[in-house]
Design a protein that fits this description.
alpha+beta; tt1808, chain A; 6-stranded mixed β-sheet; two-stranded antiparallel sheet
Length: about 180
């Protein structure tokens, strides 16, 4: 008895599903539906995203976007992932780029915020995946432990606590903020 392989979806299929209210990511053509992560998750994303966006806009450095934007990482089969936040420099995506669909290049920096339903391993695995696709820094935020883990390719992770300052160096020049500003109540 042969089992029929499920039909793999494309990035275009995922965009159409979104217009029908289906939210998710594609991993090698397979849909993985996502659910809203809650108020705490959203507050952290907007606090950090707002600060990043203001800095990027002021310096004309590139683009900051949220999870509903999506990033196309692979074709045939397609992989579209949703970082909670992403920064793409103007070098990777020109300031005048008019992108209708998903971001066509890997971001310079991504932020993954642990949701209540995520295991630490799942979030860490997603950060590893981002780094393997050319992302220079993956920030893993854990609201439960009030920490931000800064991950870079081929370097040990650095864990920041509430009294530390988040500084991502030359990946986003001149940007820094206190961890407390992002994770405080």
């Amino acid at each position: 008895m042969t089992t029929a392989k499920p039909k793999l979806l494309t990035a275009d299929d995922l965009l159409r599903l979104d217009s029908q209210g289906v939210r998710g990511e594609l991993i090698r053509g397979v849909l993985h539906e996502t659910m809203p992560a809650g108020v705490k998750h959203g507050k952290i994303a907007i606090r950090l995203g707002g600060r990043m966006d203001a800095h990027v806009e002021q310096g004309h450095l590139g683009h900051v976007f949220g999870s509903d934007s999506g990033v196309l990482l692979e074709r045939n089969p397609d992989t579209v992932r949703e970082p909670d936040l992403a920064y793409v420099s103007a070098e990777r995506l020109p300031l005048d780029a008019d992108v209708d669909g998903y971001c066509p290049v890997a971001p310079d920096l991504v932020v993954e915020i642990k949701s209540p339903s995520d295991s630490e391993r799942e979030v860490d695995d997603k950060a590893t995946m981002w780094l393997s696709h050319g992302v220079q820094i993956a920030l893993v935020i854990n609201p439960e432990t009030s920490t931000i883990r800064l991950r870079q390719p081929n370097l040990p992770a650095v864990t920041l606590a509430m009294d530390d300052t988040l500084d991502v160096g030359e990946v986003l020049p001149g940007f820094s903020c206190s961890v407390r500003e992002i994770l405080g109540n």
